[in-house]
Specification:
This protein is an alpha/beta fold. It contains 15 helices and five strands. Helix content is 48%, strand content 8%. The longest helix has 21 residues. It is elongated.
Length: 337
């Protein structure tokens, strides 16, 4: 039986990948292990779920029918041939025991006489032992078994895992395509949110739920106050560390990218908040491009610490201190990695 991957349920920017995968299915070339890789917020997990539904559906329709026994079981969360592996509650890693349990289930005969499908999301959450445990299954999978590994950080996967998977790379959609889809998600300042999300539509939706459009002005006012010497870095660091730190740091990262563009092009890009454009107008020419890039590297390191068990206010204090009566990006040099 030829399985048809549904068309209407994919996000608009998934269509090319859908066609690519459908051609593989039609030609009996469906890989046993697919790595869905790309930036956060592009819908890789949704793509994996839609593919799983299409593979498990018992009909030959254009999309998963939703009414056959397999679709009903899948919708109820009781499909015997579908497995979704994720970190357990309150855990950040996928443990080796979870992968061993999955392998034990995959070697059994399909109860629905079709595909067995496993989605591992996020695949980069597998610890080293879990990845090693999966290698043999990736190399010699049971018949009619498809593994869908979803990752926004494929570099965290072992080369041996990467080499045993065929990659489907998810790229940012065209801005007009993304905005057209976002307009259907409700009323919001989607151009600003999409920019803050680095072009990833689902991340833009998440940022809207977090109130990112409103917080941008607050953060710009904070930096302006530092630049003008009206507040101290310690209190600002404590304030930022106390609420939505990851969002605040990624907003700052975007502003620094904008400052670098400003230095290179000689014109203030839209990326830089208008409040900061006015505050930096007279100082941008005095900044060293090399020091700006060094500051950006240090900022990226600080973002990586945002979910670690460290004193976050202390960790970001050097990042914010350079804006006081500045910006003085050269001061970050002494605090490099």
């Amino acid at each position: 039986m030829t399985t048809i991957i549904g068309e209407s349920v994919f996000l608009p920017w998934h269509q090319e990948l859908r066609v690519q995968l459908q051609e593989a299915i039609d030609g009996d070339r469906l890989p046993h292990a697919l790595l869905l890789r790309g930036a956060r917020g592009l819908g890789k997990g949704l793509f994996a779920e839609v593919v799983a539904r299409g593979l498990l559906c018992q009909t030959n329709e254009l999309k998963a029918c939703g009414v056959c026994r397999s679709c009903v079981l899948l919708a109820s969360g009781n499909h015997p041939d579908y497995f979704h592996i994720r970190p357990e509650e309150d855990k950040k890693q996928i443990r080796v025991e979870q992968i061993r349990d999955l392998i034990g289930r995959l070697i059994l005969t399909s109860q629905m006489q079709g595909y067995k499908v496993a989605v591992i999301k996020p695949a980069d959450a597998m610890n080293t032992n879990a990845q090693n445990s999966l290698l043999k299954t990736l190399e010699e999978p049971p018949a009619k078994t498809v593994l869908l590994l979803v990752s926004s950080d494929a570099a965290a996967l072992a080369p041996t895992v990467l080499s045993r998977c065929q990659s489907l790379r998810f790229a940012n959609p065209d801005t007009n395509v993304a905005l057209a889809w976002l307009d259907g998600q409700g009323d919001a300042d989607w151009p600003q949110l999409l920019q803050l999300a680095w072009g990833a539509p689902l991340l833009a939706v998440e940022l809207d739920r977090q109130g990112a459009a409103e917080i941008g002005q607050t953060l710009a006012d904070d930096l302006k106050a530092l630049l003008e010497g009206r507040c101290d870095p310690v209190s600002t660091a404590e304030s930022w560390a106390g609420d939505q730190l990851d969002l605040r740091m990624r907003w700052l990262q975007q502003q620094v990218y904008g400052v670098i563009q400003w230095q290179i092009l000689g014109l203030a890009p839209e990326l830089v908040h208008k409040t900061l454009q006015r505050s930096l107008q007279n100082s941008i020419s005095a900044l060293s491009l090399t020091e700006s890039f060094r500051y950006l590297d240090r900022l990226q390191y600080a973002i990586g610490l945002a979910d670690r068990a460290v004193n976050q206010a202390l960790a970001i204090l050097p990042i914010l201190s350079v804006w006081a009566d500045g910006p003085r990006f050269e001061q970050i040099v002494a605090d490099q990695l």
